[in-house]
Write a structure and sequence with these properties.
465 residues, 4-stranded parallel sheet, 2 domains, globular, TIM Barrel
């Protein structure tokens, strides 16, 4: 009997099978958005066991385990590695139909050559076999990256980061690991104390005493320049939504003064401040020729009790309300009006926003470069079969699918690179279905361009790494 992960996994038609194996399967990976640790890559971390590399920091798995009735000590608590792994193995059969089931078995197959289904019956044998391999130099962090044919990695980094690990890797690692500017902390003004603490750190890193809007922007500009000098060529902004309101410098100085005095800020003032700072950050991106990414639509830290106990990024987030298209339009138009709109990638988390995002991107493509404003990959809760298929259909209907720059891992796990394979198989399957329905011509030059572009070449050409 064929294994679950077989050569034609997810490929349901003859055209898809041919397109994937001929034009997509062996393409390198450009992972232009992830949350991998630069420190771990620089140190070439050796993981001790399968639970450590698989469950440490993976809130996707934690959510599934909690939903399956697994107590927290086996997710983020102090249970032993083998105990945590056994609880994950107990959960896996219940994830059938969920992308976690696919990813789990793709990862076992691609990294370890293990094709058995994970369950309580196979848990210890799989754990021992994978752990034995992980403890060899062929399975160090850098070796895992090489094994997946990765060409470029773009991490996610705060403006106050020293980038010491990126500088180290530039000297001793052949794969490019580049920083990405993620200045979200500077617009989170809902918490006075944390914001002021962050401003002090930003000022220290830029050697500027920040007392007003001009000081703040100068400090950010210095750090932006520092990132550019160290290979950064893109920014990323994890916003709940786009912000827009009219303001002048006096407004923002008044708001900053209130913040520094720990006084409350109105909703209108919050909107003005976020719009003003984001506008200046986007102008910096344009000035240095960067690409800017907007990940919008997440509703974060919903469980107040668990957020208080565990902090962010531990699995308490969900899809937020649809985007305010008017504010998105006004903000992008404000940049475009003065020719300050950088190359841009828009990602939405609410599938109701697919059509809004794709058509909004089209408003600002001015012919200067191919797809100056891009619709980004299906993200987070949408990077699964149903979400990706809807994404591909919608982009095909309202944009240029052949220009799509493809998949990102958006992950903290060094085991996540098979997500690129997962996406490529689904993309080839979608294109193959359209060909066999007679909706895309069975023309080799068109199909080769589409598949190679979506898999690798479009990202390579867009970023120019």
């Amino acid at each position: 009997m064929a294994s679950f992960i077989n050569p034609d996994f997810l490929l349901t038609n003859k055209t898809a099978i041919r397109l994937y194996h001929e034009y997509s399967e062996n393409q390198p990976i450009i992972d232009f958005h992830c949350h991998l640790s630069p420190q771990m890559i620089a140190a070439n971390r050796q993981f001790d066991n399968l639970a450590e590399i698989w469950l440490e920091g993976d809130h996707y798995k934690w959510r599934a385990m909690r939903t399956n009735g697994v107590p927290e000590k086996f997710c983020t608590g102090n249970a032993s590695s083998i105990e945590k792994f056994r609880k994950w193995a107990e959960t896996v059969p219940y994830t059938a139909g969920n992308p976690l089931y696919h990813w789990t078995h793709l990862e076992l197959a691609r990294y370890f050559g293990i094709f058995d289904l994970l369950s309580p019956a196979t848990a210890d044998r799989i754990y021992n076999e994978a752990t034995e391999k992980l403890r060899t130099k062929e399975f160090s962090t850098r070796s895992l990256i090489r094994k997946m044919n990765v060409e470029v990695i773009c991490t996610t980094d705060d403006p106050i980061d020293s980038l010491e690990f990126h500088r180290k890797m530039k000297e001793d690692f052949e794969i490019k690991v580049l920083p990405t500017w993620r200045p979200d902390a500077i617009i989170r003004i809902e918490n006075n104390t944390k914001w002021n603490e962050y401003v002090d750190k930003l000022g220290e890193s830029a050697n500027i005493n920040i007392r007003n809007f001009n000081d703040l922007i100068n400090a950010l500009e210095r750090r932006h320049s520092f990132f550019h000098e160290n290979g950064c060529r893109q920014s990323d902004h994890g916003l709940d939504r786009f912000f827009y309101d009219r303001y002048d410098e006096a407004d923002i100085n008044r708001i900053i003064s209130r913040m520094m005095d720990s006084k409350p800020i109105s909703e209108d003032d919050t909107e003005k401040f976020k719009c003003a700072v984001m506008y200046e950050l986007c102008r910096m991106n344009h000035r240095r020729g960067w690409t800017q990414q907007f990940h919008v639509g997440a509703m974060r830290n919903n469980n107040t009790r668990m957020f208080r106990l565990m902090g962010p990024d531990t699995g308490w987030d969900s899809i937020g309300a649809p985007q305010d298209a008017l504010k998105m339009s006004r903000f992008l138009s404000m940049l475009d009006e003065n020719d300050q709109l950088a190359r841009t990638i828009l990602y939405n988390l609410n599938p109701a926003d697919n059509e809004v995002m794709i058509t909004m991107a089209g408003n600002f493509n001015d012919g200067t470069v191919p797809v100056k404003v891009q619709y980004g990959a299906a993200w987070w809760f949408l990077d699964q079969k149903t979400g990706m298929e809807k994404h591909l259909r919608d982009l095909s209907a309202m944009g240029l699918l052949s220009r799509f720059i493809g998949m990102v891992t958006d992950s903290r796990s060094f085991m996540s690179y098979p997500r690129h394979e997962y996406f490529r198989r689904l993309a080839c399957n979608f294109i193959g279905e359209e060909v066999e329905k007679g909706l895309i011509p069975n023309d080799e030059s068109i199909l080769k361009m589409m598949v190679e572009g979506i898999s690798y070449k479009n990202a390579k050409n867009h970023f120019g790494f």
